[in-house]
User: What shape does this take?
Amino acid sequence: MQKSRRWTISFIAAAAAVALTGAWAYSQMPVPPDFQLTQTKDYTPVTFSHKKHAVKNPDCTVCHVKIFQMKKGTTIPGKPFLIADMMAGKYCGTCHNGQKAFAVAECVKCHPKK
Ligand code: HEC
Ligand code: HEC
Ligand code: HEC
Assistant: This one.
């Protein structure tokens, strides 16, 4: 009994250590300022705001690196996210599906009119 309890405790401690190391790595990073995604030539540039996404350490893992790489323009190097992919629930469309957040169909919310 005693022995298996000790095992359980050390297992939990090890799992917590792994989880905390990930959180710690992100907690060392500043939340980046707003930036523009400018690879789209045929439509207005899109501003992405970490702040407006109410991002807090260590929430970073919601997007990084499951959905987006942690360097501007590197998730799909040299190419913008395709609107067709977002409509199909990828990239911004993971959340912008009209349920978790406003739908990709609401173009001007991301591409302000010139
Ligand atoms: C809602 C999704 C989302 C969350 C949550 C998020 N990010 Fe990002 N982050 C992005 C996107 C989108 C990019 C740009 C990726 C690209 O262009 O390929 C990015 C890029 C970055 C970059 C690179 C900026 C540059 O100028 O190259 C850093 C650094 C970064 N994120 C840090 C963080 C940190 C730290 C957190 C948590 C505090 C966080 N991110 C949470 C979406 C997110
Ligand atoms: C949730 C935000 C968001 C919404 C809403 C949105 N877009 Fe985009 N769109 C983006 C991002 C981000 C990119 C990639 C920007 C970059 O990398 O330069 C993009 C890229 C594009 C591109 C270039 C890539 C391609 O597929 O040819 C076009 C065209 C485009 N959007 C049109 C639209 C239209 C039309 C709508 C409405 C039906 C729309 N967008 C709605 C965020 C959005
Ligand atoms: C992890 C989920 C998630 C992802 C991924 C995500 N968003 Fe959002 N976004 C949200 C939520 C939630 C809101 C706030 C609710 C709403 O406005 O519907 C929001 C709000 C916004 C807003 C409105 C901000 C304001 O002015 O209040 C813009 C613009 C936006 N997102 C653009 C983007 C773009 C561009 C991408 C991809 C590069 C993206 N989002 C990816 C969840 C996400």
